[in-house]
UniProtKB/TrEMBL annotation:
Name of the protein in its database record: alcohol dehydrogenase
Gene, per the UniProt record: LOC111493981
Entries under SUPFAM superfamilies matching the protein: GroES-like, NAD(P)-binding Rossmann-fold domains
Any GO MF annotation of the entry: zinc ion binding
Xref: InterPro entries: ADH-like_C, ADH-like_N, ADH_Zn_CS, GroES-like_sf, NAD(P)-bd_dom_sf
Domain Alcohol dehydrogenase-like N-terminal intervals: 40-169
Family the entry assigns: Belongs to the zinc-containing alcohol dehydrogenase family. Class-III subfamily.
Subunit structure: Homodimer.
GO CC field: cytosol
GO biological process: formaldehyde catabolic process
Catalytic activity: a secondary alcohol + NAD(+) = a ketone + NADH + H(+); a primary alcohol + NAD(+) = an aldehyde + NADH + H(+)
Domain Alcohol dehydrogenase-like C-terminal: start-end pairs: 212-345
Domain of life where this protein originates: Eukaryota
Length: 387
């Protein structure tokens, strides 16, 4: 069993502010908490800013496990290393880092392969604790344990993250842009770039034009797709989609007797080369699969459906049509090697991160960011911890 004892002598607990989810669906409570020192293979990070992802909203509402309270949500962030536990050599105090829910241990067969980003040593899960030991580094002032979220928990001034979930980055990158690569933008861009490997001149169909779907469009644009078809029931999203490279739009509610797959097949003369499901609905995965081109069409599942959802495909479609269905967790990207590439793309003006940020708020106004997302008025709200 690994020795997870605390690092060097002299490290103490920190008292700081955090936005704690005390009851599902109710406003977060900003309160003082205690953050323990990092144990072996862990770092304690001072969060500079964090952004709000739809997954935070999903788990904020969740009443049954894996929803759990009290909990510190948040998983898109950037910060500075405040202290390190033992056996941490990759970063040091003062380094700027991006935490991610996906581990990249650099040691297991998956992490050493260019075929997968799914770490087998520290696999992804919705655990309420740290990945190696399952315990928490957070307590409230009464000594009650506060649970972690997606191995990050960024809605706090200080957090503790495993070194496998931390990527060192250039501190010159604006933090209110770099934090977006902690989850959403990397997931969407990576799905087009890494998972699908969209080729120049290809045709792409995207089901759902939320922030993830728009990030897929951005990735497809960067890859050189000639046609990017956005599918969404909200017509207001169509104008926004143009900024991300979407060239054509389909509203399923205005097709009369036709289904979406029929329309896409007609529009593309046989089906799209790549179809991305970014909503998290089994029925849409099947619709996407139907409208991807026979012979080489790929359907990439990006959206997170409810637990237990099943896909139902005709074996004829799979065998006789030569189509592929692929999952894409974190866009198929390896955090430690691919996030720096994406940041370079931003610096070179290839990846346009600015257009994802629609609002910026102070930590005290974090519940305002939740309301903006609930009302459909924001893509990404950046929350500054000390502005």
């Amino acid at each position: 069993m690994e020795d997870n004892s605390s690092a060097a002598t002299g490290l103490h607990s920190i008292r700081c502010r955090a936005a704690v989810c005390r009851k599902p669906g109710e406003p977060l409570v900003i309160e003082e908490i205690i953050v323990a020192p990092p144990m072996a293979h862990e770092v304690r990070i001072r969060i500079i800013c964090t952004s709000l992802c739809h997954s935070d909203l999903t788990f904020w509402k969740m009443k049954d496990f894996p929803g759990i309270v009290p909990r510190i949500l948040g998983h898109e962030a950037i910060g500075v290393v405040e202290s390190v536990g033992k056996d941490v050599n990759e970063v040091k105090k003062g380094d700027t880092v991006i935490p991610t829910f996906m581990a990249d241990c650099g040691e297991c067969e998956d992490c050493l392969s260019n075929k997968s980003n799914l770490c087998s040593k520290l696999p992804f899960s919705v655990s309420p604790g740290m990945p190696r030991c399952g315990t928490s580094r957070f307590t409230d002032l009464n000594g009650e344990v506060i649970h972690h979220f997606l191995f990050v928990s960024s809605f706090t001034e200080y957090t503790v993250v495993d070194i496998a979930n931390v990527t060192k980055v250039d501190p010159a990158i604006p933090p209110n842009r770099a934090c977006l690569l902690s989850c959403g933008v990397t997931t969407g861009v990576g799905a087009a770039w890494r998972t699908a490997n969209v080729e120049k001149g290809s045709t792409v169909a995207i089901f759902g034009l939320g922030s993830i779907g728009l990030a897929v469009a951005e990735g497809a644009r960067i890859c050189g797709a000639s046609r990017i078809i956005g599918i969404d029931v909200n017509p207001d999203k169509f104008e926004t989609g143009k900024k991300f490279g979407v060239t054509e739009f389909v509203n399923p509610r205005s097709l009369g007797d036709k289904c979406v797959s029929q329309v896409i097949i007609e529009m593309t003369g046989g089906g799209a080369d790549y179809c991305f499901e970014c909503v998290g609905m089994a029925s849409l995965v099947q619709e996407a699969f139907t409208c991807c081109r026979q012979g080489w069409g790929k359907t990439i599942v990006v959206g997170v459906d409810k637990p237990g959802s099943l896909l139902n495909f005709s074996s004829y479609e799979v065998l006789h049509r030569g189509k592929t269905v692929m999952g894409s967790l974190f866009g198929g990207t390896k955090p430690k090697s691919d996030i720096p590439i994406l940041l370079n793309w931003y610096t070179d003006k290839k990846l346009e991160l600015d257009k994802f940020v629609t609002h910026e708020v102070s930590f005290e106004d974090i519940n305002k960011a939740f309301n903006l997302l609930i009302e459909g008025k924001s893509l990404r709200s950046v929350i500054w911890m000390n502005n």
